[in-house]
Design a protein that fits this description.
Radius of gyration: 20 Å
CATH superfamily of the largest domain: Aldolase class I
Structural class: alpha/beta
Shape: globular
Order of helices and strands: EEEHEEHHEHEHHEHEHEHEHHHHHHH
Helix content: 40-55%
Largest sheet: 9 strands, parallel
CATH class of the largest domain: Alpha Beta
Strand content: 5-15%
CATH architecture of the largest domain: Alpha-Beta Barrel
Number of helices: 16
Distance between the termini: 27 Å
Length: about 350
């Protein structure tokens, strides 16, 4: 297995990356992931209108110097507007422009963007064409898709029309989520669909195919590559509160299975919790960071031997002093952490997940 992944002129040194996660993958989360071996990140979906209008929307898209290489993920309904949004991201220094045709959230579909476009391939093609014309080859362009709007034969036909258009227009690659738009996050991701996709379209040096869905731990990354033939893998829900998935994936690449199977110790968890909180404070201020970090703390708690108690502690956090109090109570003494299946979130076992999540 080659460790290198190519997106146009961009070379990545590992075949995995952190997905755009609605409500989660801000600069703070991305920087923590990078410090644990993640080679590439995608932003949350950025609405073209917010970028064009500037203000708060533009502020949320600002980049840290250490946050590269990175894809700015665009979502919109009209070719002219999404093209203008792509130019804004180019001016901000993004390394890749990614078009979201996958988001299944109902309010997004009502606005005729995201996953809705999977059901109208001509409109999707116009969006794709507008973006790549606007970018003009300055950086690679990619697209995020789902395997179809639903399970109907027409949805499959629509998917292949859009996918072929992506190739014909000169996109550097596509990441395909193995669930349909209608399916949202219920049930398993269809890896057999991904296998068929790589059999039909794979093996082209100029076009990279990525896979998404049901990646919960490092071993799943390489299982997907082996079973589906995708070139690289999107790590989404599996990396929330678990940046060590990237460290463990790099250990597997190096053939160090012992390191890959070793969960983070209590002190390693504490160090990352402090780091992530401080990065979030720097980005959002203490009040908002305290609220945002509760959901991360809940996820991190699964690695602690007293997971249920730690979870309840984080639920009550209202500021940095309360955050530090939880750490002092539960992370004051070192010891082994929890790994493997025992550290997986409930939705990994139920193959279902509430919104907001990877789109």
């Amino acid at each position: 297995m080659t460790a290198m992944t190519r997106l146009g002129k961009l070379q990545l040194d590992a075949p995995f990356f952190q997905a755009g996660l609605a409500g989660y993958s801000d600069t703070a989360m991305r920087l923590v992931a990078r410090r644990h071996g993640c080679p590439y990140c995608v932003t949350e979906a950025l609405l073209d209108q917010f970028l064009i209008q500037g203000g708060k929307g533009l502020k949320s898209a600002e980049l840290d110097d250490a946050d590269h290489p990175i894809a700015g993920q665009l979502m919109g309904s009209h070719p002219a507007d999404i093209a203008a949004g792509a130019k804004v991201l180019l001016g901000m220094g993004y390394d890749v422009i990614d078009v979201n045709l996958a988001c299944p959230v109902k309010k997004i579909k009502k606005k005729s963007r995201g996953g809705h476009l999977m059901s109208v391939p001509d409109e999707a093609g116009a969006i794709l064409d507008a973006v790549i014309q606007a970018v003009g080859g300055q950086v690679p362009c990619t697209v995020k898709l789902r395997r179809g709007s639903d399970d109907s034969p027409q949805a499959l036909t629509n998917f292949h029309q859009i996918f072929q258009a992506t190739i014909d227009l000169g996109y550097a690659g596509a990441v395909v989520h193995g669930r349909s738009v209608e399916q949202k996050y219920l049930g398993p991701s269809n890896w057999d669909f991904l296998r068929g996709l790589t059999d039909q379209y794979g093996g082209t040096e100029d076009f990279t195919i990525g896979g998404s869905g049901d990646i919960w731990q490092a071993s799943d990354i390489f299982k997907m590559i082996d079973e589906t033939g995708v070139d690289f893998v999107s790590v989404a829900r599996g990396c929330i509160g678990n940046p060590w998935v990237f460290t463990q994936a790099r250990a597997l690449l190096a053939g160090d299975t012992q390191a890959a199977d070793t969960p983070p110790t209590i002190f390693q968890q504490r160090a990352v919790l402090l780091e992530h909180f401080q990065l979030s404070v720097n980005l959002h201020g203490e009040h908002l960071a305290s609220r945002l970090m509760r959901k991360f703390g809940i996820r991190f708690s699964r690695h602690h031997p007293l997971g249920d108690e730690v979870k309840q502690g984080f639920i009550g956090v209202m500021g940095l002093p309360a955050w530090k109090a939880v750490l002092a109570r539960f992370y004051g003494e070192d010891g082994p952490g929890v790994g493997g299946d025992a550290a997986l979130p409930e939705e990994a076992q139920e193959t279902t997940c509430p919104e907001p999540q990877s789109i």
